[in-house]
Design goal:
globular; two-stranded antiparallel sheet; 381 residues; single chain; binds iron/sulfur cluster; alpha+beta; four-stranded antiparallel sheet
C-alpha cells in the first residue's frame, strides 16, 4: 500500500517524483571523489594556519576545532552512518542497568510524545517535532568520507517515526560569519547532535523499543524536520524555524515507539522569501537564486521532484574552500534569524498575518541593521 504523505509539511513543495537521494552526491561527499572539486577540496580539508586577522586568529581556530571534538572523535556522523555515538544498536560491551527483556506498554501515544519531547530537551535539543517516517528521505546509498566505501542503505522495517530535533546556534557567534569564530557555534551544535540523539535513542531502547540516532547521516534532515512541523523551507535552502529562523542544526532519532506526529508549520516563509532575497544578495559566492522557485536542479547535488530555490552547492563549497572554513552568511542575514524578545515576537506575528507588509518588514529589518556582520572580536556579546 502506498503511504499517504499529503498531510505532511513537505507536501507543498513536492511536484514530481522524489527519488531517494544518493549521499555520494551530497557536496561534502563529492569533495572526496569528484575530480572537478579536488582543488577546492584540497584547500578545505587540510590543516589551516591562523592569520593576523580578527576572526581568523589562533583563539578563533581553537574554538572551532574544539567545538567539533565530540562529533569528530566520538560520533563521526558527518563521515558515515552507524558509527560511535550514532551506532544503530547499543554496544553489547556497554550494557546498561535496565533489563533488556522489559517493554513499556504504551496506552497513550500522545502522552508518550510529550514525554519524548521533554526528555529530548533535557538532553540538549532546542526544538523537537515528530513525524511518520517518509522513507523517500532516507539516503539510497551511503558513502564513507574516509574509506570511500559506497553501499546501498536500508533502514529495517518497523521504524515508523522520526523524532526530529533542532539545536539553536549562538546568536552573536553566527553574527561573526563567515569567520572561523562563527564556526565555533556550528561545531558545538554538531557535537551536541550525537550527544543528544544517542541519549534519546538509549532512552527509547530502555523502554523496550528500537531507535536509530542520526546526525547528518542516514536520511536528509531538512525535509524530515519540515514534516515534523519544525519549520518551512527558505530560499537559502535551509529549514526556517519560527523560533530561531535558519540558525539551527538538525538531528533525528528513527524509532518504532508509538508516537503522534506533529502538524506542519505555516508562518508565511515561502511568500516572505519571494520578496526578501537578503540571503541571495549577501551570499559571497552567489550560490542562492534570485528568481522564482524551480524544479530544475543545478547539478547532481540537488534533490529532484521539489519546487524550491535549489542552492548551487558547487559555488557554495568554492567559497568555503577560499574561506578555509564554513560560512553562515545566509543564516546571519535572514530576517527570521532573531534572538528572543517581544519585539521579535511581534515581527514574527506580522510576517504570518500581514502578507502585504512583507517588503516593508524587510526594509525595516535593513534599517535596524539586522544581519550585519559584527566585529569578529573573540567572543562578541
Ligand atoms: S553558506 Fe555562504 S556561500 Fe554557501 S550559500 Fe550560504 S551564504 Fe552562500
Ligand atoms: S534571507 Fe530572506 S529570502 Fe533568504 S531565506 Fe531568509 S527570509 Fe528567505
Amino acid at each position: 500500500m502506498k503511504a499517504n504523505h499529503s498531510h505532511k509539511g513537505t507536501a507543498k513543495y513536492i511536484v514530481g517524483e522524489v527519488k531517494r537521494f544518493d549521499q555520494k552526491n551530497e557536496m561534502f561527499k563529492r569533495a572526496r571523489w569528484d575530480p572537478r572539486l579536488q582543488a577546492d577540496a584540497k584547500r578545505f580539508y587540510t590543516t589551516v594556519y591562523p592569520k593576523n586577522k580578527k576572526g581568523y586568529m589562533l583563539k578563533d581556530l581553537a574554538l572551532r576545532d574544539a567545538a567539533w571534538y565530540i562529533e569528530d572523535v566520538f560520533a563521526r556522523g558527518c563521515r558515515i552512518h552507524n558509527s560511535g555515538l550514532l551506532s544503530w544498536e547499543r554496544k553489547a560491551q556497554d550494557a546498561g542497568c535496565v533489563p533488556t527483556d522489559l517493554k513499556l506498554e504504551i496506552h497513550d501515544p500522545r502522552e508518550m510524545s510529550q514525554d519524548i519531547k521533554k526528555v529530548a530537551k533535557l538532553f540538549g535539543a532546542s526544538l523537537v517535532g515528530i513525524t511518520e517516517l517518509d522513507r523517500r528521505w532516507i539516503y539510497s546509498h551511503t558513502f564513507d568520507s574516509v574509506t570511500h566505501e559506497y553501499k546501498e542503505l536500508e533502514v529495517p522495517e518497523g521504524y515508523q517515526y522520526a523524532v526530529v530535533m533542532a539545536f539553536e546556534m549562538e546568536y552573536n557567534l553566527v553574527k561573526a560569519s563567515p569567520t572561523w569564530l562563527a564556526a565555533g557555534t556550528e561545531g558545538v551544535e554538531y557535537s551536541r547532535m550525537p550527544f543528544t540523539a544517542s541519549m534519546l535513542a538509549q532512552f527509547i531502547r530502555d523502554l523496550g523499543y528500537k531507535a536509530i540516532p542520526c546526525g547528518n547521516d542516514t536520511a536528509i534532515s531538512i525535509p524530515l524536520a519540515i514534516d515534523a512541523g519544525l519549520g518551512e523551507l527558505g530560499r537559502n535552502g535551509l529549514l526556517i524555524t519560527k523560533e530561531f529562523g535558519p540558525r539551527v542544526r538538525i538531528a533525528k532519532v528513527l524509532t518504532d515507539l508509538p508516537l503522534v506526529p506533529d502538524e506542519p508549520a505555516d508562518f508565511g516563509v515561502t511568500r516572505f522569501c519571494e520578496v526578501c532575497m537578503r540571503c541571495a544578495t549577501n551570499c559571497p559566492s552567489q550560490a542562492i537564486m534570485r528568481g522564482d522557485r524551480t524544479t530544475k536542479p543545478h547539478d547532481i547535488s540537488n534533490a529532484t521532484g521539489e519546487l524550491k530555490w535549489p542552492i548551487n552547492a558547487e559555488r557554495c563549497f568554492a567559497f568555503w574552500a577560499r574561506n578555509e572554513g564554513s560560512c553562515m552568511n545566509c543564516i546571519r542575514v535572514c530576517p527570521f534569524n532573531k534572538s528572543a524578545g517581544w519585539l521579535h515576537d511581534i515581527a514574527r506575528w506580522l510576517v504570518k498575518h500581514t502578507p502585504w507588509l512583507d517588503l516593508f518588514l524587510v526594509k525595516v529589518d535593513d534599517l535596524f541593521g539586522y544581519g550585519k556582520q559584527t566585529k569578529p572580536n573573540f567572543w562578541s556579546e
